[in-house]
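Internal ticket #5521
Category: modeling
Description: The requester needs a full-assembly model to guide mutagenesis choices. All entity lines are attached below as received. Residue total reported by intake: 225.
Assigned to: D.W.
Attached entities:
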Amino acid sequence: NAGVTQTPKFQVLKTGQSMTLQCAQDMNHEYMSWYRQDPGMGLRLIHYSVGAGITDQGEVPNGYNVSRSTTEDFPLRLLSAAPSQTSVYFCASSGSQSPLHFGNGTRLTVT
Amino acid sequence: AQSVTQPDIHITVSEGASLELRCNYSYGATPYLFWYVQSPGQGLQLLLKYFSGDTLVQGIKGFEAEFKRSQSSFNLRKPSVHWSDAAEYFCALEGDTGRRALTFGSGTRLQVQP
């Protein structure tokens, strides 16, 4: 059981570039979510999904898109990266009764 | 709106001393509450959770937390801190259980002096 797998671990982008952060879970969890972690601010919810085909916005969704075509995968897309998106990104998954399981994070730098 | 406040940004304790990390929440009903720990460069590990029932919950690594509804608090405690406990600790709330997502506090960084 790999749990929640995030790729890549590190990424450097130039302003205006696009990229996709990958998140996959092998626990057949219905619920998945993306957070960003910035110093002194804890983790903030970007987008979440309650099942395949269903997504919704969290606290800080601007500049990010998501889709959920399968139960296992929940990619996060940055369409046009900005320096303000420099952060550490965490993906999480859970079942209806289980606590969240987190991936190990992706550290993104936008120059 | 729901929120979590961790009033202490940084705490230093001596090894072997007791520890209490504070967490206050704002939510209209009784939430699900969690404590997570994060070592540098690592992901988040669940220490303990409160869903309902007994207000004193036991977690891993010798940690416990007490839910106090009257004070809207969920403080984390450990009777004797070890050097390996140095990390950042996050309190989190799940209010809208329909989405299974968390609202986090800003974290408390714990340093342990020898």
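Resolution: model delivered.
Comment from assignee: The interface with chain B takes residues 31, 33, 35, 40-45, 48, 50, 56, 58, 90, 92, 94, 96, 99-100, 102-105 of chain A (CB under 8 Å).
Ticket closed.
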